[in-house]
Amino acid sequence: MQRIGIIYNPTSTRSLQLSQELRQWLEQEYQHNIWWGTSDQARELTELVKQFDLLISCGGDGTALRTARLAIPYNIPVLTVGLGRLNFLAELAPEAMQEGVAAFLAGKGWYEQRTLLRTTLLRDEQELYTGVALNEMVLSRGDINRIVEIAVEIDDIPLITYRSDGVLVSTATGSTAYALAAGGPVVDPRSKSLVLVPIAAHLTAVPALVLHEDTIVRLTKLSPHKAALSVDGGDSIPILQNDVVLVRRSRQMCMLARVNPPRQLYASFVRGLRRE
């Protein structure tokens, strides 16, 4: 493994400093070819990113998600160092960074495949947008004082029409993110299941649901009020009345580089939930 990219959060002094320390250590100890920069910079260097053997994220869960978006198209493993508030996606604590990276480079690590969502926006049966998410897609209201009506179908069977602030569909990985904040369940991140969660729904008899991995969710925006679609917290895409959003499990996977044994998974869950 010779080509390593390090992604840092430019708004975090700690991320900047720690990632610089990691870069210098790797260059001195391993003489690897190291690239260091932000996710925005990396997006402009497609040919370079394709050549990476490993991407290391130094930041919070947002930085980890941005790093994953760079890695997924080329099946590059992502090793995460947690510097945020929650760090549900983090594999290494800052104090264990060098030891953990050294262990992985010595062949003592392993790889874990995580399920992704594929989201497609249709307008008048024409495909306008397709995106892939590690955490979730969100269809939400655009006006602060207006709810949206969203009809939900599961595998072509009508389920319910939510009058709510929105609806989200998450992966098991994303069940500890926005989905949890909206009242959804925590799902083992190794699961391929999907999670459907209404956001502040009005008088609904259908709460959050855990769905089979092969489920296709169809969301139709019925109300004329403003709404927007966002995938993993990315750009907001305006949604018009009668637009359709299809959500299903992607054929692609996200490869996470691991050092800690799988049995530590739930311990890290508890630490995140308790803000430890």
Question: Order of strands side by side in the largest beta sheet?
Answer: 6-5-16-13-8-9
User: How large a portion of the residues is in β-strands, by DSSP E?
Assistant: 35-45%
Secondary-structure class: alpha+beta
Determine the oligomeric state from the structure. Answer: single chain
CATH topology of the largest domain: Tumour Suppressor Smad4
The counted number of beta strands is 16
CATH class descriptor of the largest domain: Mainly Beta
CATH homologous superfamily heading of the largest domain = Probable inorganic polyphosphate/atp-NAD kinase, domain 2
Taking Cα atoms only, what radius of gyration do you get, to the nearest Å? 20 Å
Instruction: Give the number of domains.
Output: 2
What is the straight-line distance between the termini?
A: 33 Å
Low-confidence stretches: none
Write the layout of secondary structure elements.
Elements: E1 3-8, H1 13-30, E2 33-37, H2 39-43, H3 46-49, E3 54-59, H4 61-71, E4 78-82, H5 97-105, E5 110-123, E6 126-133, E7 136-141, E8 148-154, E9 157-164, E10 166-171, H6 178-181, E11 194-199, E12 209-211, E13 217-221, E14 227-231, E15 237-239, E16 244-258, H7 265-273
Parallel strand pairs: 1-2, 1-3, 3-4
Antiparallel strand pairs: 5-6, 5-16, 7-10, 7-14, 8-9, 8-13, 10-11, 11-12, 13-16, 14-15
Please describe what this structure looks like:
This protein is of the alpha+beta class. It has 2 domains: 3-109 and 259-273, Rossmann fold (3-Layer(aba) Sandwich); 116-251, Tumour Suppressor Smad4 (Sandwich), CATH 2.60.200.30. It contains 7 helices and 16 strands. The chain has helices spanning 13-30, 39-43, 46-49, 61-71, 97-105, 178-181, 265-273, and strands at residues 3-8, 33-37, 54-59, 78-82, 110-123, 126-133, 136-141, 148-154, 157-164, 166-171, 194-199, 209-211, 217-221, 227-231, 237-239, 244-258. The strands form 3 sheets. Strands 6-5-16-13-8-9 form a 6-stranded antiparallel β-sheet, covered by helices on one side. Strands 12-11-10-7-14-15 form a 6-stranded antiparallel β-sheet, with no helix packed on it. Strands 2-1-3-4 form a 4-stranded parallel β-sheet, sandwiched between helices. A hairpin with a 2-residue loop joins β5 and β6. The longest helix has 18 residues, at 13-30. The protein is elongated. It starts with a strand and ends with a helix. The mean pLDDT is 92.
